[in-house]
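Lecture 7 notes. Example A: sequence first, then its structure tokens.
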Amino acid sequence: MQTKNIMIVGVGGQGSLLASKLLGRLLVDEGYDVKVSEVHGMSQRGGSVVTYVRFGDKVYSPIIDEGEADFIVSFEKLEAARYIKDLKKGGTVIVNTQQIDPMPVIIGSTEYPSAVLEEMKSLGVNVDDIDALSLASQAGSAKACNIVLMGRLAKYFDIPYDKWEAAIEKCVKPNFIEINKKAFSLGYNN
């Protein structure tokens, strides 16, 4: 199998590391060679966080070069736009429609772009947008956006649903498993 490349992007505190751990666990359990690399910005202060997940028969490097990502899973709209150059032609961006203002917007030196998703779509990018925050809240915790997005990503894979649930059980603390399974289901089915 040719190597597949997934970037998970967001801001610190959104759960991108758990999402990459879940995805990595699932793919290892499915028998793939998997490499995961985490790139932290000012994650403790709401800065950009990027995780690369590469899998296939044999993967030699954990890094995804510009224009090589099959999927970008973005926890926030502006983060999707920031990394769009890394998406390969024909790739897909799965993006949470949530807006998290970066520091320049917070201090008033600039405005948050008003049509981020529309601009990406106008460039011919496959954009799969989802209100993950509302679905996570419906599942019982706004913090479960990451798992909602993993549910949406699962729709693009030929891996049985129960295997994804098994990975959730392995990666999530026992008292949060049911909320996360519900969040995953909502992302998968909406």
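Example B, a different protein, same format:
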Amino acid sequence: MPFSIECREGTALFDGERSHTYPELAAAVEEIAAQLCSSGAKTVGIALDNGPLWGALDLAALHAGLICVPLPGFFSPAQLGHVIQDAGIDAILTDRADFFSELLGDKVLHVAAHKSAFGNYALMRCAASPAKVPLGTVKITYTSGTTGRPKGVCLSRQSIETVANSLLQASNADADYRYLSVLPLSTLLENIGALYVPLLAGATCVLLPLNEVGLEGATKFDAAKMVRAFEKYKANCAILTPQLLQSMLALGHPLPDLRFLAVGGAPVSKRLLEQAEEQGVPVFEGYGLSECASVVSLNTRESRRIGSAGRPLPHVALKYTEDDEILVKGAVMLGYCGGEAIDGYWPTGDTGYLDKDGYLHLTGRKKNLFITSYGRNVAPEWVESELTVHPAVLQAAVFGEGRPWNVAVIVPKDASLIDDAVRKANGALPDYARIGKWLIADTPFLPQNGQLTTNGRLKRDAIWPHYREKIEALYGEEHGVLR
């Protein structure tokens, strides 16, 4: 049984109305695991909103020895279709059977309704070709997409449990903790940090539908709802992205019961952390990535340095390349779905260093991938390609690092049709990758002005400083500028 839940007492999961004890959770996991095994499924996808049922199904798949693939609700239909095929998912556990029936068409073999003490769901069997995954894979987590076709990160049970135990040790979590799940459980950080860690601690996971904590899609957020949820359910711990933290702090509403707010998933402004300090909010910045089974380093109550990503967790070993790229060993993924197995240090693509006291500092990213303030990965080339397919757009450069929405600098063929081009591009993109605002470039991007390579690639390091002031003005109009 995962995380010895059958040996614990007290409330394990709470949905806002009903408490589910540890023995009740253990019984449900046994029952659902038996159903999954009898179905003949080998790789199951979970497509549900946050709630105790999500947790029970996830634990049941782990207990049954199946491969579990969380299906993010913020993925586009095209991305979901890719994940289902790429991972070889032959069963989907969902409350949206009609949606997936339409998405998969004649690949659906059978749909069975199931009832449990944690809620009702459909088990949809699908025709699937087995995926090539490394031996020992128990979970495949898909990132929010560096392109339109996200990669599946294959993780072992040992890696997942290693990270969860390290986080338990670092956070000093105990049975009095009440974790409010604010982010989708389909994201690896939330899955481990807001479900597995509390269960290891014998604590309570408060698992509400996402709209009840103020989150809709990947970018719409009502901070007042989240604050009310903390108060109503007496939650004292959570994981937030920088944008969610900023929105919460802007309310200035005191939450004296808070004990531990981890913030990560995207670069965090030092000023934002200082603002939290001024308001007495216990915020602890961390760093990680899916390929390293989520968290790599974390600030804690005992070891905290604002502006750093904290000290590496106990299981982590770091080293650096000559150009300061961070390499991580310890609980590294087995490999990508469909790829070869890997071993040893993982190149993160991030640059940084350890200071003399052992705190990790991040200094940048090696490649063009940026992370929005909601923690979603975006490759600008992907968004730019959707814009430049429109006949009105000659060139486009997209920026959005650490921001709630993206800005495009556009070289037009027909400026009067840019609104239409942006609208159509956004229609093909998930919400976290869409363009929030755009501006017209002063001149085309050319080798002559240093903004284009001779083989036609954008030189972002030259484009950004040229348009930085105008771009920051666009953000400042609505959200203020994080510095």
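Note on Example B: Residues 479-483 have pLDDT under 50 and may be disordered. Residues 379-478 form a domain with the GMP Synthetase; Chain A, domain 3 fold (CATH 3.30.300.30).
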